[in-house]
Amino acid sequence: MVNKRWIALIILIPFTLLSGYAMTQVSYLGILDYNRYSPAGWQVFTDLVIALVLVLSWLIPEARQNNRNPWPWVLVTVFMGSFGPLLYLATAKKISAPE
Question: 54, 60 in Cβ contact below 8 A?
């Protein structure tokens, strides 16, 4: 079975490259701005927020259970989206299965 850390890294590396490319093309605010002009963009942005809130509902107790401060991961998630959970998984020593 593939380790969750490796899965996170396999996703994180190309996602970082894609995000870096997008930032060089339109900037941080440009990425957010792109979604405000149509109902389709609003839906995609809202879906992302919902998904990340659900992920944080797992990540916060998981971090506390493993004696890790969850707030750095929460802040990275709020400001950088999926980077927070991906970095958490990539740096975790032990990951519990969700209940």
Answer: no
Whether 86 maps to a domain, the answer reads: yes
Residue 34 lies in a domain: yes
* 45 belongs to a structural domain: yes
User: What gap in Å lies between CA 18 and CA 71, rounded to an integer?
Assistant: 26
Summarised one tens digit per residue, pLDDT across range 14-38 is 999 999 999 999 988 888 888 888 8
Contact call for residues 31 and 22 (beta carbons, < 8 A): yes
Residue 59 confidence (pLDDT) = 96
In terms of C-beta density within 10 A (0-12 exposed, 13-18 middle, 19 or more buried), how is residue 66 classed? middle
82: helix, coil or strand?
coil
* Tally of structural domains, the chain: 1
Q: 50 near 42, Cβ under 8 Å? A: no
Which residue bears the tokens 């950088």? 80
